Input
Amino acid sequence: MSESVLGVAPIPGLDISGVLYRYTAVKDRADPFTVTVRNENPLDGGYIFSETDDWSGKSGQTITRAIPVGYSPIEYWGDGEITMTGTGSVVDPQVVYTYRFIEPEVEQTAPALPTLYSVLDDPYAQTAEVDREKFLKDDEEASKDDEEVEKEDMEKALATGDADLNMAIGQTGMIAAMNPVTMHNYYAISIPGGVYQETVILQGGEIKDNRRAFRSMANDRLHTEMVEEQWR
Output
């Protein structure tokens, strides 16, 4: 089937689903006459579609028909034609094919895996690993040397501290020996004292309110309210 007949390119994935045709039969009522619409099958031979209209004993007229067909791949649909038998003719024939398109599945192949990197096969990585082990070994030895030096310094500091402590204890003993007077002698001293009577007498027995202080407090309160009003 050509693209001009179908309306689209006959590509894989295209399936024919129906045939619609229309024509006008011209004939006398008494004359025998048949019209056949069909398409060849290029793969299996014969015809993939064939529909015949028998006009015998009928008057000629225009006919329109829609014939559904099972979904058939476009590869099975060859050239189409309209054939006639008997006495009569066909005017203004039209044939239309309905179809659907399903995109064919494409077999996908997995891409080749890239070559995996192996650190064991990399000479630069092996050299770097040797240098790393040497560095760790040197660092460990240096740490041991530092620990020994710190230990020696601490032993020297402790020895110096013991000598200073002994010296301080000796000085304390000498000072105690040079001062025969001890602190407990001070606790035996008695300090003379007595009761001091109050001699101030309030004249009249009444303390009057300080009105000047009240006025000052009122002014302070008014000032505070005025300041708070500014922030409201």
Notes: The chain is about 35% helix and 25% strand. The radius of gyration is 63 Å.
